[in-house]
Design a protein that fits this description.
Blueprint (H helix, E strand, L loop, with lengths): L2 H21 L20 H17 L4 H17 L4 H9 L5 H11 L5 H10 L3 H4 L5 H14 L7 H6 L14 H14 L11 H20 L3 H13 L7 H10 L17 H26 L8
Length: 307
Amino acid sequence: MTDTATRTAHQVSSRAMAWLHTHHRLGALPAETTADLGDPDSVYKPLGETALAASLVLREAAAGSTQLRMARELLDFCWQQLGAGDMLYERLLRYSMMTDPLETYAPFARSGLRHEALERLLAHTGGLRSVRGVEIMPNRRLAVANAARVVGLDRPDDWSALARATWLGGLPEPWLVDWMSAYCATHTVFHLTDWGARPAGLPADITAYMTAWLPVWIDIWAEIEQWDLVGELMLVGCCLDEPYCETADWERLAAAQHADGLVPRDGEPVSDDPVRRFTDHQHTAVVTAVAGTLAVSRALGGGTAAS
């Protein structure tokens, strides 16, 4: 990883974090929101993603003091929006087989924001046959296992079996990758390595596979300006045992970034409406902030936790 790549990654991710911080109140839950969440993907899921980004910036502690302050303020905002965990507790109490309360809670727990009643309920429901037997996509099952690991729940997860059940775990023909399988592959890596903290958690053959094909996939999706997926793939590079972080990739993403820090999700025109700008491109800002943070951290020697 060159000094230029590290410097550009820091600049791009810092601007993305600042954009998230400037506009974060546009992502507040509507006043009438309850734990029933008629449309979980509209605001609730993005809040969890912002919390994830903030928690990883704080975990790595590789950013400057300004970025660390913004990350803490973003995390506190998201926690307040979720009633300091009360909404997650209520949601799990009503819908015991839902996995999102645990997954949403994990970034807060990672950063020291705990909810004792929720953790007792998670420990109880996690032992139920109905809950452990819920049929979800393999990379999503990894997400649940990693969230449980972060929270500190005692669950007997077979990480090798979980990895091999995924699309990526089968070492698929790389030329057959499509948008959804690429997305699933990135998240398989994220959860096996706990977002880059445990590079050794990725099996050696999967590491070799991603090392070989990641540069190709990044070029493919960059050529058609799918910047959200490009950012996800670049984040994967920071999770590998030998990080893949190329100056050209970061310069390409920097060129796509707007002057205010917004990183477009794709090559389509960006709306002038502030709310639409935030809802359409918040996820790409999250991905960029995390990818750049991990790139800088790995350059400084981060990512050494045991598998």
